[in-house]
Known about the structure:
Largest sheet: 2 strands, antiparallel
Helix content: 55-70%
Number of domains: 1
Number of helices: 4
Distance between the termini: 29 Å
Strand order of the largest sheet: 1-2
Amino acid sequence: MYKNRPKIKIHRETLDVILEFLTLFVLVILWCYVLMYYADLPDIVPTHFNASGEVDGTGGKSSIWFLMAITTVITVGIYILTQYPHIHNYLVEITEENAAYHYKKSSRLLRFVNLFTLLIMSYVAYSVMATAMGKQIILGSSFTYIIIGFSVVMPIVLIIYLSKNKKDELSKK
Length: 173
C-alpha cells in the first residue's frame, strides 16, 4: 500500500512547533496535577460516569495511574505517528510531486488531533480526581455534547482549512 511512497523529511513550520509544545505542556501539567493531588485522593475514586454525569463505577485510587498511562501512550503514540507521514492514509495517490504537501498537512492534522485528544483526556482525569475529592464537576450530558460537537465540527473545519490551503498552494505555482 505505502511501500512505494517517497520517504521525505518534512520541515516543521511555526504552527507545528507550537502545537507540539502545547501538547507537551498540557501533558506535563496533567502529570504534575496528578502527582500533586494523588495523596489527597480517597481510597475509592470514580472510574465511570453515566450520561447524566453521575458516578456509576468506582475503583481504587491507583486506577488513576491506568488513566494516566493510557493518556500518555496515546499522546506519545500520535506524536510518533506524525514523524512517519508516508504510512498515513490518503484520499489521493501520493507521488514525488505531491508528497511534501500531503505529508505536511497530514502531520499537522495529527498534531491538532493529538492536542485535542489530550485536552479531553485531561478533562476526564481532572473530573475523576475532583469528583473523588468532593468537588462538583459537570461531566454528564455537556461533556457528551462537547465530544459530539468536536467530532462533527473538527473534520469540517479541517476540510475547509485543507481546501483553502490547497487553493493558496496552487495559486503560488
